[in-house]
Every structure is written in C-alpha cells, then in structure tokens.
Amino acid sequence: MAELTTLASPLDVGGVKIRNRVFLAPMSGITDEPFRLRAHAHGAG
User: Fold this and answer.
1) Shortest CA distance to 44 belongs to which of 36, 27, 31, 17?
2) What's the CA gap between 35 and 17, in Å, rounded?
3) pTM
4) In angstroms, rounded to a whole number, what is the distance separating the alpha carbons of residues 12 and 39?
5) CA–CA dist 33, 3 (Å, integer)
6) pLDDT, mean over the chain
C-alpha cells in the first residue's frame, strides 16, 4: 500500500502546499450535482 501513502502525502508547488496528490480536472458542464457533492464531501475545493 505504499502507493496510497504517496497519494495522501502533501505536495509543494511554488510555495503552495497542497494537502494530497489527488486532483480532479475542471469538468464544468459535464459533471452532475451528485458527483460534485460527493467530491466536495471528500475534500474537493
């Protein structure tokens, strides 16, 4: 499970600290509200 540990570790980009290494691409107009609510519940901005 070393891969999960790596994904959960913080990432520094140009002095900005990101709390983990999991990203969602912007998908405006493609995703529906239930997907966005679930992503937000799991920490998406």
Assistant:
1) 36
2) 25
3) 0.43
4) 22
5) 30
6) 81
